[in-house]
């Protein structure tokens, strides 16, 4: 997606990547592809598993690989930056397999390499609470990265899997950044200085992620944008402006995190009602689902982002970081 100074869409040599799209599943892919195409979205991180066990995660990976192998599906599982670009050129949705938590590894750091070979190229260290790898963002103690969590970071670096600190506690995330020899990302999180939620990142952590060459993906979840009711797209862009002013626009991307969860799923994931309202969830005016993603570029441009900076936020920045992590 290329956005000129006027905010219009033009050209086909740039890319729109959404780094958290849990609503996109193997069984909904055909309709999802239409939504993504309508929004100008070329690539997504698809959540394979988060709190689920190893067997469930393997089954989900198998379902995605079945999609990849079926020429009737308009999507391909990708494991390199070049494959993302090639999928876009072919008119296909590029799917990056993503763990939102390391519980699917079952406490075995050796499975990082196994899942990497199966195509899981991004792993979030924790979900919201205490896990074997470290503390999540809603864990009061925030004890930091565990010894096992440090081993996971090492294995992720070894197998060129992106270390994702979304949902991690601040101390856990900072420990992971210090430990990692490759860029670290926060696939979907906003700036705590703009909206004071534990799911958002303090400036210290944003700065540390940027210093690795990493990227923070803007999250469209209502209570991570503002504490005051239904948010607007302008309010989401407030977070982009803050991060860009703090560390540079080259460290801002799109996370979005659109999800349509049921009451049962809400209870399964154990969300804290202080930070996550019970469903149905609402999304920003002007950005209410994936087909509205094309609305982001013009608002960024209106807030002073240059055309090149807009293209970076929409996908180029994550593509650069992933290329650095994944190599060739």
TrEMBL record:
Pfam families for the chain: Peptidase_M19
PROSITE patterns for the chain: RENAL_DIPEPTIDASE_2 (PS51365)
InterPro entries found in the cross-reference section: Metal_Hydrolase (IPR032466), Pept_M19 (IPR008257)
Protein name, UniProt field: Dipeptidase
Protein species of origin: Actinoallomurus vinaceus
